Amino acid sequence: MGNAQSPTSKNPRSERARRAFSKKELEDLHALFVSLSAQSQSPSKAISPSVFQSYFNIHGPLADRLLDLLTQNRRDSMITYDDLLITKATYEKETAGEIEEFIYQLCDVTGDGVLSRSDLEAVLASIHDAVFSAGDVGSGSSLDRDVLQVFLNAATFSKQGEGEEYSMSFGDFKNWCALLPSLRKALGSLLTPPDPGRPGFQVPQLQYPENISSDMLIMRKEYAWHIGGALSQSDTEEWKLLYHSAINGLSFNTFMGNVVSGDGPTILVIKDTEGYIYGGYASQQWDRQSTFYGDMRSFLFQLYPRASIFRPTGANTNLQWCAVNFSSDSIPNGIGFGGRANHFGLFLSANFDQGHTFACTTFNSPCLSKSSRIHPEVIECWGTVVKGVQNEKADLVKGTVLERFKEDRNMLKMVGLANSSE
């Protein structure tokens, strides 16, 4: 039965590729081929480019380049089972370095052996169309070149070719992918059957009150997609707006009152008076303490004018910071990420009117803004929502001293009166 589902081939490359898959994977792949070839009016013989592109929802220059790699540049408009098997094995089953090399070649959409800025523009346009044309991910899903530019701004072109033009080396490409995990996931799953869990194609649903216009929000769907690339699938389903400075005011107490009402991680986003946009993902709830805490899921990010993700390096555990009402200069009042006290990777003072961002080894991140000293213009905080989990907490008045028992207990912790077992 297995041989009937997944026929053998005399092609040595095909036989080698076959050994990379399990029996079930081969049967599923052959069943997909039979289905797509039937839709191509060529039962069990070949898949047409139009059916292939429609099924995998990838179009434009990136799709054309993928077809060339699939068919070894035959350009006969026929994708055979061997083509699909060999490419999928190369794409998904080889070593990490070989897979990266394949994706590097894939992004060279002109096939001239030079990965140029125009190649990357075409790749980003194709990915943008594939991600944001699928399903309802909110309004304004048309191509926005300004947004795509922030992803290009994260790229380095260090390889000098003929003349004065520089291109992207393989090392440059790997670094670019590390800074843009959402893009790397999407480029690595183009031959994955499209479904809601397809890596790199998930866009968090942004939930916010009806009386707030989307124009007021810093967070937009492309930014959410970018940040979500560093998160698990469950944390990229839905995000809820917990705090917005234009609505809630620049108040630390109100911020704390709003964000602790959620049960999951939060995404802090800041737009400063210089126009730069950046922030941090807090894997644990904001909890008033006198020292660093958190875990290695936290990270810093940039959104504008450059998009990047900076994950923990393991150099230290100075991940999250949340302190208030301390009188010691060694315990700055406010919230932050990384670095050290008074020299954070990102820090907002408890007044929410100023802060700073320095290069730090915690995340191997640079200064996130134009200058180290920052003055926030807008502050947002989004909470991740795990669907199916019911929040039974009552709606309480935000920003008051007696809002929550949890907040009272945290204050007791800081003065040493809480139960030591907590």
Automatic annotation (TrEMBL):
PROSITE patterns: TLDC (PS51886). Coiled coil: none annotated. Residues 1-11 have a biased composition (Polar residues). Residues 217-385 form the TLDc domain. Residues 1-20 are annotated as: Disordered. It comes from the Eukaryota. This is TLDc domain-containing protein. It comes from Dioscorea zingiberensis.
